[in-house]
Amino acid sequence: PQGGPLFIFPTPNRETFSALTGSASVRYQVADWLSTYVSYARSFKSGGFNTRYNAAPAGNVPIPFDEETVDSYELGAKMDFGAFRLNLAAFQADYQDIQLIFRAGPVPLLFNAGKARIRGFEAEASYRSGGFSFEASASLLDDDILSITAVPGATATVLPGDDLPLTPSFQGSFGIAYDFQLTDAMKLTPRFDGSYTSSLVFITGSVPEIEQDGYFVGNASLTLSHEDGWKLQGGLTNLFDERYLIQGNASLATLGYAERIFARPRQWFLQASFEF
To answer: Whole-angstrom Cα distance, residue 91 to residue 140?
Structure first.
C-alpha cells in the first residue's frame, strides 16, 4: 500500500537460495614455541527483496537481489615464549556479487554490485608476569572494489577505487593492568584500555559529512575481587569524552539529507558479581 511518501509491499515474497560452503585448515607444529597454519573458507550471504519504495516499482513487483559469496584465505603463526605470546596472520577475502547500495531515483536499493577484495594483516601480543599483564593488537586492511555490475534503471553509488564501508585501514588496541594482592584471598586490579581506529566510511561513495576521521578511545576500571567468587568493579568508558561517529547515512544529491549517530559520551559504571 501507499502510505504518504512510503510504499511497502503487504504480501509475502519468496525466493530460495542455496550454496555449498565449508572450510579447511592445516596446522604444522614447527617447534615447541611455534605453530603455523593455513586455512580456507567459503561463505555466502543470502539474497532477498527490496521492499520499501517511495513509489511502486515497475510491475508492482519488489526488486530482488542475489546472494553474495566470499572465498577467504589465511596464513598464520602462533608463538609462545613463556610469559610472552605473539600471534600473526595474513588473510585475503574475495567477494563475488557483493551486496551494496544503488539508487533508483532517490530510493536506496540493495543490489549485487560486483567484485571486491579485502587483504589484511593482524598481530596480537600478550605478556604476563607476576601481577602485571599487557595485551595489544593491530590490524591493517586494504580493500579494493574490482568491478561494478551495471544495474538497468539504477545508479551505482560506488566506483572502483572507493572504500568499502566499515573497513578502516588501521586499527590498534592495548590493555594494561596490575593485580595488587591485598590479602591472600583478595586483590585489587586497576586497568586501562585504549584503541585507535583510522578514518572510515559508513556507506559507499564519498560523503564527507558522514565520514569519520581517525580517533582514540580510552577506558579505565578498578576491580576488587575475592577468591570466594565475588567481584566489585567500577570505571569510566570513553574516558577522554571522545566525540566520534558510529554510523552515518546520506542522500545529499537526491533527498538533501545527511544523518549521523555518535558514540556515547563519557560514562561511569558500577557493577557487582558473584560466581558459584
So the answer is: 10
Amino acid symbol at 104: A
CB 259 within 8 A of CB 245: no
Answer yes or no: are the C-beta atoms of 205 and 163 closer than 8 Å.
Answer: no
Flag whether pLDDT at 164 surpasses 60: yes
Residue, of 136 and 207, whose pLDDT is higher: 136
User: Alpha helices of 68-213 — where are they, by DSSP H?
Assistant: none
Decide the pairing of beta strands 180-181 and 170-178: unpaired
SS3 169: coil
Q: Which of 20, 9, 15, 77 is nearest to 43 (CA)?
A: 20
pLDDT tens digit sequence for 51-77: 777 666 666 778 889 999 999 999 999
Rounded CA gap, 76 and 48, in Å? 35
Residue-wise pLDDT tens digits, 23-35: 999 999 999 999 9
